[in-house]
Write a structure and sequence with these properties.
Strands 3, 4, 5, 6 and 7 form a 5-stranded mixed beta sheet that branches. A two-stranded parallel sheet has the order 1-2. It has one domain. It is an alpha/beta fold. It contains 10 helices and 7 strands. The longest helix is centred in the middle third of the chain and has 18 residues.
Amino acid sequence: MEVINANRHQRPATVSAGDWNPAFADRHPAFAQLGAVRFWEHCSTWPDCTLLGGRLPPGLQVCSGALVRFVPQDGTLPYPALYYEERIARHGLVATRANWHDFFNALVWGLYPAAKVRINTLHGRDIETAGMARTARRDALTLFDENGVVLVGSDRALLQAVLDFRWVEVFDPGAGWGTSLVCQVFGHALFEKLMTPYVGLTAHAILLQADAAFFELSLPRQQEWISHGLATVLEHIDAPDRLSPVPVLGIPGWWPVQNDDFFSNRAYFRSKQRTRRAKAYPLPPKGER
């Protein structure tokens, strides 16, 4: 990976829609979260909607009772007059293009299905009451859906350090990353950005506090638990300031050179400038999901 000068904000050119690369998961450590079954590795072109749909839990339904299905966003798209979220809420149809953005969106549907259904339900609720005008809740849901991460930790003080922007403390390699604190990428646009990461890349986090038993689980079981936990917590995300910004390239291993010069970049590792309503939510015990 090319090392970018940490004293500048450099955004590399985005990867074009035609650049399918089945080895993309080797480009950044965050892609390990996509799991060991890399069904895309034998694809010579973009996985089609049928293949992507095979990663969904059987019988996954939206609030209307319709089954979730990926459909091509082209001239054959059913109900073209409907807004994207309306088409999902009413008919379960997720319009999907052959590009990285929608590919990662489909993968996130497979990893966190309960949370994705909940996001769509909340969008639909606001559309029914406010029409197509954007509400603060829908802005927050979109921000998390596109650019969100979930930080799960067992140390309440460390989660508070995230909320307080105490980045040296948060990103200390001895802080328990991987053993008592994990960052799971949720936003499909964030996955796309991690293809070519740049200093300045910032996610918007929901923080969950878990007990030690969470960290003893396999990755798929952790993700299942997170998905169901988010389905409850998302009800409280009614405005963008319920999310906490996180300069994710500070996570150990997520940037090639994480030295003192890197962390001294105050344009990236900023201090807290205003009050936000973000907080750490308890992750419900498994029996309460």
